[in-house]
Amino acid sequence: MNWNVIGAILLALAVILGAFGAHVLRSRLDAYLMSVYEKAVFYHFIHALGVLIVSILPKTGTFPVEAADGVCWLLLAGILIFSGSLYLLALTGNRTLGAVTPFGGVAFILAWLLLAWRLRRP
Known about the structure:
mainly alpha
């Protein structure tokens, strides 16, 4: 999997979705739903940047490729589940989608803990 490319695409998508929210949705969503949408974009962007950074670590020789794969898969899952559910909640107003969001948060937490575990020095 080419995580460099995926990270760059995820970052571009975060910018596109952020602009969409700022220019199209701002007048259509109430303050609460707009804040939900903005939170989705923020977490999407931060964790997409994480995918890009983690994907570069093996190129430095300080981090194994298979470890980067695991972290990147978890970050991608977190973006899809956490941010994806918040995007849908904001766009549809269906608050039951919020029940899925914590699973994405757990994926984010696991990704960062796996990164820490794999970076530790004996």
